[in-house]
Specification:
It contains three helices and six strands; from the N terminus they run ααββββαββ. By secondary structure, the protein is mainly β. A hairpin with a 5-residue loop joins strand 3 and strand 4. The two termini are 20 Å apart.
């Protein structure tokens, strides 16, 4: 909580913890994260492939741990066809410092290409979670 309220103190807290074997975890506050938009569309060039595009935002004034994304594919009657959870490294593969956290007030665009040929969805739900 101290590192969240006074981000400049994080370095001192990390140094103090290093000496005694503790850790100052990044915040994990889902209420401070938003899914601004999300779409799931067929890739016309590749049958059976869909593209999930979403824009995520950390609205907190402090660094947070990147969440996992849970994608639920649904059928025409909202029945669940499948659920897949993506770790931050799965949906931000080129991000150089995922363990360093998600900077405050920053937006991330995500695009995932998924093979759904075995279970063609009619809809989807997307949510953020911490395991």
């Amino acid at each position: 909580a101290i590192a969240q309220q006074w981000p400049a103190a994080r370095g001192y807290l990390d140094a103090a913890c290093a000496g005694v074997g503790c850790e100052v975890p990044l915040a994990r506050e889902l209420a401070q994260l938003n899914i601004e938009s999300s779409t799931l569309e067929a890739d016309p060039a590749h049958p059976g492939i869909v593209v999930l595009q979403t824009t995520l935002q950390n609205v907190a004034p402090y660094m947070q741990r990147y969440p996992h994304l849970e994608l639920t594919l649904t059928g025409v009657n909202e029945d669940v066809l499948g659920v897949k959870v993506f770790a931050p490294g799965d949906y931000l593969p080129g991000e150089p410092n995922l363990s360093g956290g998600w900077p405050p007030k920053q937006t991330r665009a995500v695009a995932l290409h998924l093979d759904v040929s075995a279970l063609p969805p009619a809809g989807f739900r997307l949510r953020l979670l911490y395991p």
